[in-house]
């Protein structure tokens, strides 16, 4: 699939500011961070969760517990058409029952990834509440699921794709909208 | 890499890349068995048939749990209670079951090549759970997964496999897998148990256990079938145990951090003595735990297709 970059939505500064805003919102919403747990969705969600964790620590001095979720086995499009996607490890280091979970991902699009993450999370226990934090919301959801904390909201077309590039996984840091050919 | 193979019939035909891909996938599946809810929906609604012509505890239960933890439905064919005793052929039996829209067949059979024959005749994916003396690929995969966990990189490790190599599908699959990943494999046993052209696989032969164990990282003991003492391969199990049994004293000849492995079931007092079977270096029970993860990985990879997503 060929991509043609249309425009840059945010540069490294923009990403940093959006994450800071997200962290502040989380602090406002959770005066007590002790029972909060950040769960990053592979792959970029994991790194963004780490960054948010650091920002929370810088602001409050509290280190929030964190986990990693791989949603491959819960996807709704695991058909027998193509070869199976690679499965990486899910690491939930403590009991989530009673905890306030914040699922973190880079882009919120149709909501299907989050649906899969929610189903998988429920197999680990009974959280007190689950919220969603994303860097970019494309506002093209296909399921009745909504993010609670959003860094940047974008109007996009169906044939466009939003790419979040962060230094942990890519060679640069920015958010771009590209067109699929 | 994208998994493309439609069946798992043996280790010999796998590339190093495919082998590592299964092991990496198994690593990710291991965690599922530690959850409260030991289930993922990846194969929800798919049907898996277990066709075991030979007795089995470990392998059968392991495959059953693997399928159930992937949310698949299981059908267990117990050969003695099936029409196979009425004279129905293997292929007819499976074709009839295939007509009920199944997805995978897991077969253990006494004849080498049975899994291969089946895979050529039916559509659903076939997994070889042991065919005659030929291969037992999921056993080797779980063995290698255990070695990887304990020792890291397989390359350069010295592995010794002790027992009836001639009749052992476990030995064969392990030799293929370990040599593919760069380990140095030595097989050890009385001459009547060592196949004549074993060096062609890349393995070395050694008839004296003490020499074979010297400096070994991995000590794998195989089960000796009681029947072998009746068909003149060995004079008695007692003599085998005296010369080739892995005792605590003999295990000390291997490296201090060597691991002791056995596919099970153990003949205590023959291939292992009471002390070694439960010693600190034994990873025998971990092998069993990893068996479920490996089989989940194999079934997951085979439940895909070959087209574009």
Q: Main sheet of chain B?
A: 5 strands, parallel
Look at the helices and sheets of chain B and give the structural class.
alpha/beta
Using a beta-carbon cutoff below 8 angstroms, give the protein chain pair with the largest interface and the number of residues from each chain.
Answer: A-B, 24 and 25 residues
Mean pLDDT of chain B: 93
Give the C-alpha Rg of chain A: 16 Å
Mean pLDDT metric of chain A: 93
Helix content of chain B: 25-40%
Rounded to the nearest angstrom, the distance between the terminal CA atoms of chain B is: 14 Å
Shape, per Cα inertia axes of chain B:
globular
Strand content range of chain A: 25-35%
State the helicity of chain A in percent bands: 25-40%
Rg of chain B, Å, rounded: 19 Å
Tally of helical runs of chain A: 3
Which structural class matches the secondary elements of chain A? alpha/beta
Provide the descriptors you would attach to this structure in a database record.
heterodimer, A: three-stranded antiparallel β-sheet, about 30% strand, B: alpha/beta, five-stranded parallel β-sheet, about 35% helix, about 15% strand
Question: If you had to describe this structure to a student in words, what would you say it looks like?
Answer:
The complex is a heterodimer of chains A (181) and B (309). Chain A is α/β, with parallel strands linked by helices and 181 residues long. Chain A has 3 helices and 8 strands; from the N terminus they run E-H-E-H-E-E-H-E-E-E-E. Chain A has helices at residues 12-29, 44-60, 112-122; strands spanning 3-10, 36-41, 65-69, 100-108, 129-137, 149-153, 160-165, 174-180. Chain B is built from 11 helices and 9 strands. Chain B has helices spanning 16-30, 58-69, 90-98, 114-121, 137-151, 169-180, 209-213, 237-244, 248-251, 274-277, 284-302; strands at 47-52, 73-78, 104-109, 125-131, 158-162, 184-188, 204-206, 218-221, 259-261. In chain B, strand 1, helix 2 (58-69) and strand 2 (73-78) form a beta-alpha-beta unit. In chain B, helix 1 crosses helix 11, helix 5 crosses helix 6 and helix 5 (137-151) crosses helix 11 (284-302). The mean pLDDT of chain B is 93. Classes of the chains: A alpha/beta (181), B alpha/beta (309). Chains A and B meet through loops of A and helix 1 of B.
